[in-house]
Design brief:
- By secondary structure, this protein is of the alpha+beta class.
- The chain has 2 domains: about 200 residues; about 140 residues, no CATH class.
- The N terminus is likely disordered.
- Strand 1 and strand 2 form a beta hairpin.
- The strands form 3 sheets. Strands 1, 2, 4, 5, 6, 8 and 9 form a 7-stranded mixed sheet that branches. A 3-stranded antiparallel sheet has the order 3-7-10.
Length: about 375
């Protein structure tokens, strides 16, 4: 029974996210408004473009540069149908030659774009429907610059149509935009969530005679949860702030590799526990590295001049709120199951092993490119 539960858990985790994925499917849309013209570029992961237009023509599991070039027309058509810019009426959108950009989580197609609108742009409406039929988790991370002011937004999902005033957006508007981006990043950040989950799984348990048993009261579990979450929050807030203000940065590949390693350490600690009551120390130590991971996304979006601190606070607060929502959703269930064999002998050892295995694949991919 325990073996079958373990197998099911490993299958569920392997299907939860692609081993290539750092986060749920995201694209990066950067545009700049100049009078009646919009110029910029969109980056979409090769794996997402494959879902959208079928790049792998010969079905050998490899996407070559020749296949990418051969799909240029199909890709342009797809983007034109699923990405629209408009003011009073629709702007004419065109795309340049596709190029390849390498990110830590894989290769992306970098596609320059331009749009000519019928009049000077004072408010730009963006309709974003990429992958809405292929991947419901997909979102577009927008960076919009006009008159020296930068705005950000998360496009797609339940709100495919959004309008942006270009005059002088309020500080409150900027705060909301970065708060929303922070919430989305933690929800879509599979590696961050698995690290936190690995540390929280034992929070409703205690060690007795060399094995895990459920806590008899709720107070110790709550204290364990608060210690881990607080340590993780404090640590990644420190390095996120340092990186956001260009005080300290680390190479992306190194950061992402260590993040993957942190998941392995946290997950294996559940199987071979050498740190039990002081798991908050693991949360703090590796949380410092996770902060650099959060900062990489914030760097993509940019911090607007004049509202850098407000936007940083908004993004960080969004991360914390998203994190707390996940904890509130998961931990009551864990507490109810804490005394069951399913939790103690199934979820703890086999779920943690599955998490560590997935993170090991990430580590190899990120370290070797």
């Amino acid at each position: 029974m325990v073996w079958s539960m373990g197998a099911a858990l490993m299958l569920w985790l392997s299907g939860f996210t692609s081993v290539n994925a750092h986060v749920a499917s995201n694209s990066f849309l950067r545009v700049q408004v100049q009078g009646s013209e919009v110029i910029g570029a969109i980056e979409i992961a090769v794996r997402d473009a494959e879902l959208a237009v079928g790049l792998d023509v010969n079905r050998d599991g490899q996407v070559t540069w020749g296949e990418v070039r051969g799909a240029q027309a199909a890709l342009n058509q797809y983007l034109g149908q699923h990405l629209q810019l408009s003011i009073s009426s629709r702007c004419t959108l065109s795309f340049g030659a596709v190029q390849i950009n390498e990110r830590v989580d894989g290769h992306y197609l970098w596609q320059p774009l331009s749009a000519e609108c019928p009049a000077t742009i004072h408010a730009l409406t963006i309709q974003y429907r990429l992958l809405e039929g292929e991947d419901l988790s997909h979102r577009g991370l927008l960076t919009l610059t006009a008159h020296g002011v930068t705005q950000t937004a998360v496009l797609g999902g339940a709100h495919p149509l959004q309008q942006f005033e270009l005059g002088n957006p309020s500080v409150w508007t900027a705060f909301k935009q970065y708060f929303s981006a922070g919430v989305w990043h933690i929800w879509s950040g599979t590696d961050h969530l698995l690290f936190l989950l690995s540390l929280l799984l034992p929070a409703v348990l205690m060690r007795q005679q060399g094995r895990w048993v459920g806590v008899t009261q709720g107070a110790p579990a709550l204290i364990n949860i608060l210690k881990v979450v607080t340590a993780f929050t404090l640590a990644h807030s420190i390095t996120l702030s340092l990186a956001a203000f260009d005080i300290l940065r680390l190479p992306g590949r190194l950061t992402e590799s260590i993040i993957a390693a942190s998941i392995i350490v946290a997950a294996l600690n559940n199987v071979f526990p050498w740190v039990t009551e002081a798991r908050w120390r693991i949360a703090f130590a590796f949380g410092l590295l996770h902060g650099f991971g959060f900062a990489a996304v914030l760097s993509e979006m940019g911090l607007p001049q004049g509202a850098r601190l407000v936007c940083l606070v908004g993004f960080n607060l969004g991360v914390e709120v998203g994190q707390v929502m996940v904890v509130v959703a998961v931990m009551p269930v864990a507490y109810l199951l804490r005394a069951t064999k399913f939790y103690q002998r199934g979820l703890m050892p086999w779920g943690s092993t599955a998490i560590a295995s997935l993170a090991l694949v990430w580590l190899v991919q990120r370290a070797t490119g």
